[in-house]
Amino acid sequence: MSTINFTSNEITNMETRKRSAFMNSLSGFKSASLIGTIDDQNNVNLAIFSSVIHLGSNPALIGFVNRPDTVDRHTFENILETNCFTINHINKSIYKQAHQTSARYPKDISEFDATRLTPEFQNNFKAPFVKESHIKYGLEFIEKHELKINGTILVIGKVVEVILPESCLLSDGAIDIEMAETIAISGLDSYHGTKKSPDFLMQNRIKCQ
């Protein structure tokens, strides 16, 4: 396979949209998630994110990267208002609707309504889950950190509730996200199914014994 090299200057000088597509693809496959929020007036919001990351197990922390706060960011604003949000895995059945949440809607228009996804409220948790998502969890907002280099904001939440199919919980505590039909994203708009490598898993389990 032939190769092509790019320097930092060449990347910087790319046309804006081409550079965005290039850099969003460079980091490889990423999680595809819908973040559900609500404001103090009970207006619900839903937005797709590919920057959700695991930060720790004890305490159970998850973070995501929010774009620079230079325009209205309804998700971020709602989290600061209510101190809670949900993260919902995107599955094969809803990825087209999930992608549509990336469009810009006025604050008074709910992406749930626009995409015909269903807000679901569980156990008095204020922020909405996505009913059609198979794996979802609610978080308490803990802290935010602005990255001075580009103005993006790392938002950190503590997991306070998890909802998933019982059949997807494995005996060792891991979650079988493939069984839940969770998909991955690459670039800006490419969605992918997954397939586990049983030989790789077997070799690693043997090494850990």
Structural notes for this entry:
- It is a single chain.
- The chain is α+β, with helices and mostly antiparallel strands and 209 residues long.
- The protein has a single domain, classed as Pnp Oxidase, Chain A, CATH 2.30.110.10.
- Helix content is 22%, strand content 31%.
- It has 6 helices and 12 strands.
- The strands form 3 sheets. The protein has a 7-stranded antiparallel β-sheet. A 3-stranded antiparallel β-sheet has the order 1-11-12, with no helix packed on it.
- The chain is globular, with a radius of gyration of 18 Å.
- The mean pLDDT is 91.
Structure summary:
By secondary structure, the chain is of the alpha+beta class.
What fraction of the residues are assigned to beta strands by DSSP?
Answer: 25-35%
Strand order in the sheet with the most strands: 3-2-6-9-10-5-4
CATH topology title: Pnp Oxidase, Chain A
Q: How many distinct folded domains? A: 1
Strand and helix layout:
Layout: H1 8-12, H2 16-26, E1 30-31, E2 33-38, E3 44-49, E4 53-57, E5 60-66, H3 74-82, E6 84-89, H4 95-100, H5 111-115, E7 119-120, E8 129-130, E9 136-146, E10 153-163, E11 184-186, E12 190-192, H6 198-208
Antiparallel strand pairs: 1-11, 2-3, 2-6, 4-5, 5-10, 6-9, 7-8, 9-10, 11-12
Offer a few descriptive terms.
Pnp Oxidase, Chain A; 209 residues; 12 strands; globular; seven-stranded antiparallel beta sheet; 31% strand; alpha+beta; three-stranded antiparallel beta sheet
